[in-house]
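queue> pop job 88
queue> type: inverse folding (structure -> sequence)
queue> payload:
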């Protein structure tokens, strides 16, 4: 294969180098290019010229395609002219240039400049928000190309604004734009109602997108009340805002009393409680929202193994003990729940004690013990309970197990918000509970992997162990068919761990067709070429579908680590657009446009087994079990 195979060109030869003619170098750039070519020619480089049939591509300097807005001697917004290829794509966030953008040219070029589209490169948060409001289009233009570009820019901003400004700052900025003086509106060539409606449209989209994160924010509650009061004040002068009033009432659950002076100019002197119902303080109360959250709870039955279960945030100790007693086939009266705190102390939980604090974290590591504080189960013992566990797992239908696993994962994945990926990547330690669902699904992926290892390594019978591995291979294939790639990866990784893969006597007895099926499944998990096999396979699947979340987070982290968030104290909005574009991929996976529902019915017996996984999370214990089954030669 020749070196130039698959390449359009290596270098385009300047007209100054073409034989038989004399060319003039118009500027220093061509001169520097000629010097570079001459220097490379002396080194023996060969230059290939690409003869294109299309129109000759002209290049522009970086200064020509970038335009800046300057205030007080410094750049506050940097725009880049979009190329024709970019304009053909629906994704990029863009602006049409206006008279406020510097460097555009004289009055004779005004129409040409207006027709150009610009993407946001960087800027201050305030200036980006100002231009975003300026570029929002009316409802009647939502279907146009400009409307789609405006929607994409708005989505980029709302998904990533926590990176560069707080929610409190955004509330203050939006109030400032809404209450801006009429003089400023006339300078911009816009009437006050249009500007106000754009602010209200942005607020509506913000609440619709980020409502789950804003329910508990006191700044948002105060902001909605204040904005609602301002809109009511403007109704007398601008009756067209009545639609926005109703929308604010719906978003914030705000209620106004129907008084005769609602639309009078003197209404501004009325106190706020005449227009807002203090009974409904804007959004759901903190306690109600917390009760609706679910978390994965681990109840250790030995020092190294636990039962994993999904519970509501307000669960009490008695409820957990009831589940453990049923799973371990013991009387609930024999058990107590002990929280082992990090300093090493022990706290005996009373039956009605809440297990989780306000931070949705347990009071400590939870242990279910007998009342004499002895352990319930010894995972190393070859007792009747372990034999019953293996028999129970082997009796389950593999398709039903895959359906139950997928339903479990889908219930969590469908509640994951795109913005959780942003919080997880940029500010994981201070996310204030904004990444609960995402962490839940990542934790579930790890636990399914450990569950596969635990089930295989706790099976002392060689024949039954072979049957178990065959079952897990079939379950992995079913998960792939059900478009649950998160669980599919977890099962394959569990079978490929060192503690399981070293069981040579067991793997020798696996039939050839199952080994071939496993080999085909492993090609999807092949990490070469940046997981190309997985990406190609997943792209062909219809939505809804569950992606492999660790890989999606890896993509976002690479964008984050490879690009600066700020350039010269300006927000690098190009980086944020790339992150928002990747984050939107998850939204596409959650949508069901064609009715390809991912949830299916599963038997109650299978759900009872899958909803409470017994997991050994200590790698040393797992290796000890592996060497007990098949000692080193």
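queue> result:
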């Amino acid at each position: 294969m020749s070196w130039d195979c698959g390449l359009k060109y290596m270098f385009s030869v300047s007209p100054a180098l073409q034989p038989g003619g004399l060319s003039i170098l118009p500027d220093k750039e061509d001169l520097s290019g000629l010097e570079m070519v001459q220097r490379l020619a002396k080194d023996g480089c060969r230059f290939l010229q690409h003869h294109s049939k299309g129109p000759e591509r002209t290049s522009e300097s970086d200064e020509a395609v970038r335009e800046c807005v300057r205030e007080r001697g410094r750049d506050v917004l940097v725009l880049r002219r979009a190329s024709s290829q970019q304009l053909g794509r629906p994704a990029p966030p863009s602006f049409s240039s206006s008279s406020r953008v510097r460097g555009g040219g004289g009055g004779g070029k005004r129409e040409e400049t207006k027709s150009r589209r610009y993407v946001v490169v960087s800027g201050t948060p305030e200036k980006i928000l100002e231009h975003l409001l300026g570029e929002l289009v009316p409802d009647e233009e939502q279907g146009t190309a400009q409307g789609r570009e405006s929607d994409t820019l708005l989505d980029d901003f709302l998904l990533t604004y926590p990176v560069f400004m707080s929610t409190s700052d955004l509330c203050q900025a939006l109030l400032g734009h809404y209450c801006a003086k009429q003089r400023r509106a006339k300078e911009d060539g816009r009437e006050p109602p249009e500007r106000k409606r754009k602010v209200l449209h942005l607020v509506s989209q913000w609440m619709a997108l980020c409502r789950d994160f804003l329910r508990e924010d006191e700044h948002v509650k105060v902001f909605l009340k204040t904005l609602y009061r301002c809109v009511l004040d403007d109704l007398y002068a601008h009756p067209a805002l009545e639609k926005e009033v109703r929308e604010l009432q719906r978003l914030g659950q705000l209620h106004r009393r129907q008084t005769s002076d609602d639309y009078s100019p003197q209404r501004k002197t009325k106190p706020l409680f005449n227009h807002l119902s203090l009974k409904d303080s804007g959004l759901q109360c903190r306690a109600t929202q917390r009760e609706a959250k679910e978390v994965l709870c681990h109840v250790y039955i030995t020092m190294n193994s636990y039962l994993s279960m999904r519970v509501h945030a307000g669960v009490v100790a008695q409820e957990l003990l009831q589940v453990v007693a049923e799973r371990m086939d013991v009387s609930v009266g024999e058990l107590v729940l002990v929280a082992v705190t990090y300093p090493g102390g022990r706290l005996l939980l009373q039956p009605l004690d809440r297990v989780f604090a306000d931070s949705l974290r347990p009071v400590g590591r939870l242990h279910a013990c007998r009342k004499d504080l002895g352990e319930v189960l010894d995972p190393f013992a070859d007792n009747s309970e372990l034999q019953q566990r293996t028999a129970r797992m082997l009796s389950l239908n593999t398709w039903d197990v895959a359906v139950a696993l997928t339903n479990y994962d889908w219930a969590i994945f469908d509640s994951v918000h795109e913005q959780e990926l942003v919080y997880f990547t940029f500010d994981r330690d201070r996310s204030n509970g904004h990444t609960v669902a995402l962490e839940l699904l990542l934790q579930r992926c790890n636990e399914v992997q450990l569950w596969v290892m635990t089930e295989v390594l706790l099976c002392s019978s060689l024949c039954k162990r072979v049957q178990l591995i065959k079952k897990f291979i079939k379950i992995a294939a079913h998960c792939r068919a059900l478009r649950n790639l998160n669980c599919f990866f977890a099962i394959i990784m569990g079978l490929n761990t060192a503690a399981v893969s070293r069981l040579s006597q067991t793997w020798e007895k696996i039939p050839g067709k199952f080994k071939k099926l496993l080999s085909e499944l492993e090609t999807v998990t092949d990490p070469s070429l940046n997981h190309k096999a997985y990406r190609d396979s997943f792209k062909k699947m219809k939505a809804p579908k569950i992606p492999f979340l660790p890989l999606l987070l890896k993509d976002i982290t690479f964008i984050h680590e490879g690009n600066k968030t700020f350039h010269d104290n300006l927000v690098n909005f190009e980086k944020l657009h790339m992150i928002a574009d990747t984050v939107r991929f998850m939204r596409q996976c959650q949508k069901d446009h064609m009715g390809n529902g991912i949830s299916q019915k599963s038997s109650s017996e299978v759900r009872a087994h899958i909803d409470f996984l017994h997991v050994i999370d200590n790698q040393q214990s797992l290796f000890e079990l592996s060497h007990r089954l098949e000692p080193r030669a």
